[in-house]
Amino acid sequence: MVAHSTRQYATHKQTNIASSRSDCTNNHMLEIKNLHASIAGKEILKGLNLTINEGEVHAIMGPNGAGKSTLSNVLTGHPAYTVTEGEIIFRGKNLLEMTPEVRAREGIFLSFQYPVEIPGVSIVNFMRTAVNEKRQHEGKEPLKATDFLKLMREKKALVGMDNKLTNRSVNEGFSGGEKKRNEIFQMAMLEPCLSILDETDSGLDIDALRIVAEGVNALKTPKTASIVITHYQRLLDYIVPDFVHVLANGKIVRTGGKELALELEANGYAFLNN
């Protein structure tokens, strides 16, 4: 049931993210207060608090099973997760009252840890539909074919995406690294307000990691924000966070600057047992 829901949710995310808004103005981008969430009756998040402002990059680290991916799934409205307590305010609005589709239209983008395939839908056609639906949402005319192809070339160059991949079905037959580049390519095309990168470094070699990170950095603006979920400090050499949070047992238990990631890399999470 969860596997089916995940694939169904992924398809919703891929097809509805097109409506992300370009107007991201709101000083408090995201406010999470006392968030409790569960899956299949098991509580994973147990009173999480987090505030993210415009222009900020927040890294979330922590041991396996701490709730990092649960947080990303709750923010984007995965149907397998249930919020039992707390609130999430996104750009001044109650996020928990929004469907996954509306959350995407309001400007939330999730780069999947494990991107799924959408057979029969080419990346070119998918992105043309996505971009033009976004433009329609903003009251703009659809892009002409020549302008759309020019935009695609610019964004592909940004993330180092091979031209031949865009004629294939979304993620079908892609390597792990190619799937991650495709996720960042979508983000580049759609320019969301809040980008959630869930272990984007997973499966990437050093060169691919650098190219993807450069693409993420190029999209950073004073009016947007990012959550970077990772196990490893190496990603944060390229995407430098303003804050690093340690998530453990469903709560954020420690917050610091970028130097905290270096400390965790050196010493691990032994302090959690003290």
List keywords for this structure.
274 residues, single chain, Rossmann fold, six-stranded mixed sheet, alpha/beta, 8 helices
Can you summarize this structure?
This protein has 274 residues and is an alpha/beta fold.
What does this structure look like?
This protein has a single domain, classed as Rossmann fold, CATH 3.40.50.300. The chain is 36% helix and 27% strand. It contains 8 helices and 12 strands. The strands form 3 sheets. A 6-stranded mixed sheet has the order 6-9-10-3-11-12, with helices on both faces. The chain is α/β, with parallel strands linked by helices. The protein is globular and about 60 Å long. Helix 5 (145-159) crosses helix 6. The model is unreliable at 1-22 (pLDDT under 50).
* Mean pLDDT value: 84
* Major sheet size, sense and barrel closure: 6 strands, mixed
- Provide the succession of SSEs: HEEEHEEHEEHHEHEHEEEH
**Number of beta-strand segments:** 12
**Structural class, from secondary structure content?**
alpha/beta
What spatial order of strands do you see in the largest sheet? 6-9-10-3-11-12
Strand portion: 25-35%
Given the structure, what is the number of helices? 8
What is the name of the CATH topology? Answer: Rossmann fold
Computed Rg: 18 Å
| CATH C-level name | Alpha Beta
Overall geometric form: globular
Number of spatially distinct domains: 1
Q: State the helical fraction.
A: 25-40%
Q: Spans of 5+ residues with little confidence (pLDDT < 50)?
A: 1-22
**CATH architecture type:** 3-Layer(aba) Sandwich
